[in-house]
Amino acid sequence: MSALYPNLGDSRITPIWQPQPGPQTDLVTCPVFEVFYGGARGGGKTEASIGDWFLHSGQWGERAAGLFVRRKLTQLSDAIKRFRRYGAKIGAKWHEQKKELTMPNGAVLKFAYLERDEDAEEYQGHEYTRIYVEEVTNFPFPDPIMKLKGSCRSSAGIPCGIRLTGNPGGPGHHWVKARYIDPAPKGYLVIEQLEKIEIEDGVFVESIIDRVFIPAKLKDNKELLRNDPGYVQRLRETGSAALVKAWLEGDWDGVDGTFFSEFSEEKHVLRGVLQLPPHWTKFRAMDWGSAAPFSVGWYAVSDGEILAPRGALIKYAEWYGWNGQPNKGLKMSADSVARGIINREKDMKQRLSYGVADPSIFSNNGGPSIAEMMLIAGCGWIRGDNARQAGWEQMRKRLAADEPLLLFHESCEHTIRTLPYLQHDDKNPEDLDTDAEDHAVDETRYAVMSRPTLRDKPKVSETDLTKARAMPTINELLAGSIKARQMEEQRY
Ligand SMILES: Nc1ncnc2c1ncn2[C@@H]1O[C@H](COP(=O)(O)OP(=O)(O)OP(=O)(O)O)[C@@H](O)[C@H]1O
Ligand SMILES: [Mg+2]
Q1: Which ligand is nearest to the CA of 76?
Q2: Which of 49, 248, 284, 441 is the most exposed place for a label (fewest CB within 10 A)?
Q3: Which ligand is nearest to the CA of 41?
Q4: Sheet holding 130-133, edge to edge
Q5: Helix (H) or strand (E) holding 6
Q6: Predicted pLDDT at 207
Q7: Which atom of ligand 1 is nearest to the CA of 167?
């Protein structure tokens, strides 16, 4: 059955809902365990998840159990409204307190939000035959979703699946792109992977998981284009060319809303072997991390003769302490990181002028600070300037200059991987969203702030200029005061 009928299955009557031809039909008939249906805004993604649940529950009855998830509770309300509207037509019952929709045949769909990653633990040990995650790019990291996968199983042997939807952009853009789009940008290629699935807290099973990307295109949502022809026009007026392209075509390669929109690989990444003149100033910077990654970068300051303008910073090497999973650190001790740095520097054979680090390494909570431990191991640091907004401003100016004043060698792969996808913070647009993987750019910020050479000319308004012109010059003032003194003297 691939349409929803008022009495769940009687195809003699006009269906209440049916998938549109193309990706919506592909989604509701897809046998693959993990499906990411994503791309264009208004492509029909939410509608496809809604329809999929009605079809799945209609087929499997009370043995079907669903979980519909978003990042925030407030974001769930639109989907709940739509589920309830369709549900009412077939006699489904809504339970407000439990946030559950019970179908007439007994199947239950639960709605939940995972504001914090730990919230996913609450659903471990449960059994869901279908899990829907909406706007998956709102999740900065895949961890909670990977946890949920452990609950996607059926002891009754019902085919289970997780269905994710989302648009380009957002704090999770990068991992979503890497997991679903990069392996097959045009989609429809099933990828099989051996994965460890956490079925309860700390209990793992190994399993072959297949996943597939189904691209959502606005042109496939004929219902919307027919009923609301002004939608495309409105989208066009909403944002920059890159953002509109991303929304209309589901383009994952260049999205707006990124914190460093000035950055591009063509302009800021140096390729090939770098010959750094020995007389250039060189230094290193560090953002400390243990459970989260640490980032160490090595920088050279150009004298303007080759490669970059005078004063430009070239990040020529990096050491990113991650365990291979986004935002997960190596949990290395301070002295072994210090030894790692010293060993790398021996290989690089560059004389460094100083090292600048995240100021938190200087705090000692009862014992020696990280800075002290690293110093004992032979690696010294000066305290970095942690003025965040000023630091971002400095980085932006350096990136935005016609001839960039901040460049990265291609070997700095984690800086190049993470920097383009960092997003503005929802609540404070002057800052970036610190939930995302920001360690390499934090470290770059400390480096840049150790050489804040760029200053704008102070802005002078026309009124200030008029006032200034009306004011006596220094000579006039002097002449005036001499005359005043002479007059004073003549009085006595
Ligand atoms: N199968 C369908 N039957 C009827 N209408 C549909 C169908 N699919 C999509 N639509 C119409 O298209 C509109 C947009 O679809 P939907 O909300 O699913 O898009 P979306 O991709 O989730 O959008 P967004 O990116 O904004 O979340 C719906 O409100 C609905 O009117
Ligand atoms: Mg939607």
Answers
A1: 2
A2: 248
A3: 1
A4: 93-95, 100-102, 108-113, 65-70, 130-133, 161-166, 34-39, 203-216, 191-200
A5: none
A6: 82
A7: 25
Q: Using a 6 Å cutoff on CB, does residue 20 contact ligand 1? A: yes
Rg (CA), the chain: 29
CA–CA separation, 413 and 409 (whole Å):
8
pLDDT of 432 strictly over 90: no
User: Cβ(167) to ligand 1 under 6 A?
Assistant: yes
* Tokens 């995650």 found at: 133
CB of 170 sitting under 6 A from ligand 1:
no
What is the distance in angstroms between the CA of the first residue and the CA of the last residue of the chain?
Answer: 114
Closest by CA position to 100, among listed 65, 71, 75, 131:
65
What six digits make up the tokens of 11? 């195809």
Rounded Cα distance, 278 and 351, in Å = 8
- Identify the band that residue 467 occupies on the pLDDT scale cut at 50, 70 and 90: low
Q: Tokens 């560090």: give the residue.
A: 286
Helix, strand, coil percent values for the chain (each to nearest 5): 40, 20, 40
C-alpha 5 – ligand 1 centre gap (Å): 19
Q: Distance between CA 27 and CA 37 in Å, rounded?
A: 7
Which of 18, 221, 227 has most ligand 1 atoms within 8 Å of CB, for mutation? 221
Verify whether ligand 1 is closer than 6 Å to residue 418 (CB atom): no
Residues 369-403: tens digit of each pLDDT: 999 999 999 999 999 999 998 999 899 999 989 99
pTM equals 0.65
Residue whose pair of structure tokens reads 């009855």 in the numeric block = 61
pLDDT at 75: 83
Distance, CA 171 to ligand 1 centroid (Å)? 23
